[in-house]
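[User] At your convenience, examine this fold.
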Amino acid sequence: MLINPAETIALVKSAMGAQGGDELYKAITLNTGLVNYDLQAPAKNLYPVITLLGKTIPRVPGNGGIATNWRAVTAVTPGGVRSAPWTPEGKRGARISYTTANKSANYVTLSAEDNITEEALSAAQGFEDMASSMTTRLLQQGLMLEEYAILGGNASLALGTVGTVTTSASGAGATLPTLTYDVICVALTLEGALAASLSGGVVQASTVTSADGSTYTVNGGSSNKSAVATQAITLGQHLFASVTPVVGAMAYGWYIGAAGAAKLEAITAINSLEFIPALAGTGQSQAAVTIDASRNATLAFDGLLTTAFTSGTSYLKTMATGVAGTGTPLTAGGRRNVTEIDTMLKTMWDQYRVSPTVMYVNSQELQNITNKVMNSSTSPIFAANQSDPYAVVANGVVSGYFNPFTLYGTPVIPIKLHPNLPAGTILAYCENLPQQYQNSEVPNVCEMRVRKDWKQTFWPQITRTRDTGIYVEEGLAVYAPFAIGVITNIGNG
């Protein structure tokens, strides 16, 4: 059978709705999907990687063993009268004496793991080197986890059981229904504060399933709960609650509800609460908190904050409870200074002749410090462009603090935002012992003692998935804990 092309085309045109013309009508639009896909390569990594402490604390090789150990001479005491070295003619002076202590820092392992399937590797060709990108992200995650550990790792400080909750009710305008409420408090370490949320609750002992299928238990940084306190509320009243500050606590979780049904309703940076809204009723039950899960004695090392809380020589100031829900904020000293910071700097000099070289703060505390020392008459306003004097820059921030109590070096202490430091806490730190510590044999106030530095391991492949992990074995050795100062439980204001 012979096919006439012209006749066939004419029949096709007629079938597709041609109205007698020669043009072929069609309905191709964007909705058909017959378009290019403009995919930018590689992937955009939109997460911050901030490791202020990890970048500044020196890393030195370890020497095997399960811990790094040292012996500290913490004081040399003259014989006789301390301030009277006078010696009679022909006599010998009194012998000096020493105060010494054995110190150690355990080596622990930090890690991060990931995997990728063979299909994912193949499909990523032309987009990015997925194996290389995975390694980069693993290392970034590992360094961020290390930053948490350096700041607030906790092996030795048990928060225990929170003390008695004190409650009261007053005021008007709140939406709590008339009822007698249970009020329970749980204290949180840095790890606990970072892990807790109203939707997810506080973390107690958690079972972790490792990449090899085995399991182990990690404590989440929460104390055991307080005893139940009760408070009668008349509709409209505010509920106030407070507890004695817990040493080492960075935040507090508050469980509120009808008798026997209290749930997590608030998390505060101070040891008290003013509760106004109606209960959400969707938080974690108080029954979920059964133990003190505040430390990981065998898995963790003590970070800078824990060292300050436990050393007995670090400067530690816990602000007073004050008005429940408000607490005690920093105090303006009247000469563009902050009284509590001045007291810390003076005490560290008077007791140990050290002067901090950096202060780390949360954004809330940076704002509060700025508000204490700057006002409408002292805030800088200057021309953004000299050619346009009416285009001005407003606002300002305190980026450093002048320390009058220093013998050598620059007296201005930089104030730096740390993303993992909770609101309500200031950490001051002397990165190197000053010149007056002659022959101290301490090149660094603290250092990462590294038994085995970050190393990537490619696990044997037994499936069509490639597994890899990065691991480090290290401990934080703090040789001079008296060079750390902490102000905590600071009210917002």
